[in-house]
Amino acid sequence: MKKSIVLKTAIPGPRSQELLRARQAAVPRGPYNITPLFIARGEGAMLEDVDGNRFIDFAAGIGVLNAGHAPAAVVKAIQQQAEKFIHSCFHVTMNEPYVRLAETMNRITPGSFPKKTFFANSGAEGVENAVKVARNYTRRSGIICFEDAFHGRTLLAMSLTSKVHPYKDHFGPYAPETHRMPFSYCYRCPWGKRYPGCNIECATFLEDFFKRYVDPSSVAALLVEPVLGEGGFIMPPQEYYSILINICRKHNILVIADEVQTGFGRSGRMFACEHWGIEPDIIVTSKSIASGLPLAAITGRAEIMDAPQEGSLGGTFGGNPVACAAALASIEIIEKQGLAERAGKIGEKVRDRFEGLWKKCPYVGNTRGAGAMRAIEFVKDRTTKEPAKELVNRISRLCYERGLIVISAGTYGNVIRTLMPLVISDDQLEEGLDVLEGAILEASQALQPAPVESKAAPIAPRPGGEGITGVV
Ligand SMILES: Cc1ncc(COP(=O)(O)O)c(C=O)c1O
Known about the structure:
This protein is an alpha/beta fold. It is built from 13 helices and 15 strands. Strands 4-10-9-8-7-5-6 form a 7-stranded mixed beta sheet, with helices on both faces. Strands 1-2-3-13 form a 4-stranded mixed beta sheet. The longest helix is centred in the C-terminal third of the chain and has 22 residues, at about 340-360. The two termini are about 30 Å apart.
């Protein structure tokens, strides 16, 4: 197998260190950096830093590069559009890529009912706009969101986000009328129950929620990531969403799916909602939609999307023609190359490795996921489930030093998630997984007392249970 990782210098190399000093002087610390890496070029699942070191990328700019770094057809579409015109502002003079992309989003999102789509610039803006539409249509203001959810960093999106540190602390006051309920986190069940004997209390609880926290007649929408992203790729059981959604329908509450991270094939389906057969009233997408150009789509039932009056939605840059051209080319790649199916195959390989690690390493508490979005959650002790954040930091650092970019997740920062480009080759995938497995075992060995071959119970049935959960 030809190796893809090439490390020419000590990491970070001299040019990276020089840029790092400039970065520290010129840029505040708030916009954080996971690695000290400065990228010079990217191709497929590989990236090269400014010192000529080549890395395998298991992060893809946080799930943005499903079609890979700089896919040729997307680069060409960007160049061709930029040569014609870069900006029009849809509200002043319209452009064709905007309308064609709206048609495409209406076609590929779940639900065969008539739909309409408009565009914004980021995931957070997409979520904010979905909430605006839902409130306007229902004439209600309440939004139900979830523990461990992440929806972005603007005021309303931050308010809907769960994790306090670092996303919310000292950024209040938060937007009102957001109501948070626990999510279906089988490994750390908020009710201390175990699937399937739990009777999916996390879903039926919504009726109780309406008695204790908010009257359903004041709730516009329930906002949910079908698989929690930043929260650590948490997968609800198969029955979960039908129970939640039936309760919402009973109270005329809309369902908004935030597919910003799960979208465009990553979960093994074009949209993760499809795993549960969910047809949300509004779906928000972004990240991989345009292979890295800033864009978000808000797609929903036509009658809902048409509720806000003319002039009430939009913005200067939303649906920029270059970004829309990039999105049309990206979606064509994802569809024609069958990247959702490929995500399933990638996921099988990652899942096998992670399940093997669960048997070998006692610090692996749980592994789960859908398609290529797989998570491995680390604990100091399988009984107490105390999160092992420091171990994850050590693993991430070792990976970086060995030429693999990985990122963590979870409210406790104790999860590693895989977000590799779906165009990754089998060899690159194996090489990356070898590095990750080596780093996990080495970092675990360094812990005291030294880990021994796990004597833990056999693998629990899935979904639900202890070690290995998730639906796909
Ligand atoms: C599920 C989800 N929603 C919203 C966002 C916010 O997107 P952005 O960072 O583009 O504002 C993210 C970003 O990670 C996300 O994962």
